[in-house]
Design brief:
The chain is an alpha/beta fold. The protein contains seven helices and eight strands, in the order ααββααββαβαββαβ. Helix content is 27%, strand content 25%.
């Protein structure tokens, strides 16, 4: 493994196994065969759980990381939860400019990387899921999108995660009495404060 590969991963994993615990919790409620992680940087934790992940990022350091295919495989295989034949690929691109077959993934991941649902929902299968956190307003954007239905709330507790799938109407209720619109979200590029917050949300694509 190249030294830069290990350094980039160590920095990404500075809260050891945090993302592993997140994806493990998600994997307990859905079992996607193909995953698209847009804006992934070097976070390969989904490959600890899911069998086939396509990573996308425009950062040159991410490209350098994934160019070390042997090193990345070593990181993935270090987790005994990873499938023996786990597959991954990397696309060095702006996710807003991706050219991929439509409806070809079971899970779309949007964490801290902007309005991924705006540009990448077309790649998600009907019945597939979007995992999205409130950062930059993408969770709020998904809540306005008629193609999506809230399917779960990811709760963070004492360093671990669980997915709640009951009483979902209690979530995504803004604290402030202001109308949440696409125009507002794109103009502020910020998340919305909710009365009952969650770390992230799981939406199902229904249309």
């Amino acid at each position: 493994m190249q030294e830069i590969t290990q350094k980039l991963w160590d920095k990404q994993n500075q809260h050891p196994d945090d993302r592993f615990r997140l994806f493990r919790a998600v994997g307990k409620v859905i079992a996607p065969k193909s995953v698209l992680y847009a804006g992934s940087y070097v976070d390969v934790a989904p490959s600890f759980i899911f069998p086939n992940v396509t990573y996308v990022d425009m950062d040159r350091r991410a490209k350098r990381f994934f160019d070390d295919e042997v090193g990345v495989k070593e990181i993935i295989k270090s987790k005994d939860t990873a499938a023996p034949n786990a597959q991954f690929s990397f696309i060095h691109s702006d996710y807003a400019k991706l050219s991929l077959p439509e409806q070809s993934f079971d899970l779309l991941i949007s964490l801290y990387a902007g309005f991924i649902s705006e540009y990448c929902t077309k790649f998600l299968k009907l019945g597939g899921h979007l995992l999205v956190n409130p950062s930059h307003g993408d969770a709020a954007l998904a809540s306005l999108d008629e193609r999506y239905q809230l399917a779960g709330a990811v709760i963070s507790e004492s360093g671990d995660y669980r997915v709640v799938q009951t009483n979902l109407a209690d979530y995504l209720q803004p604290k402030k009495t202001v109308e949440i619109t696409r125009e507002l979200l794109f103009s502020t590029n910020r998340g919305v404060a909710y009365t009952r917050p969650a770390f992230a949300y799981l939406f199902e694509r229904v249309a």
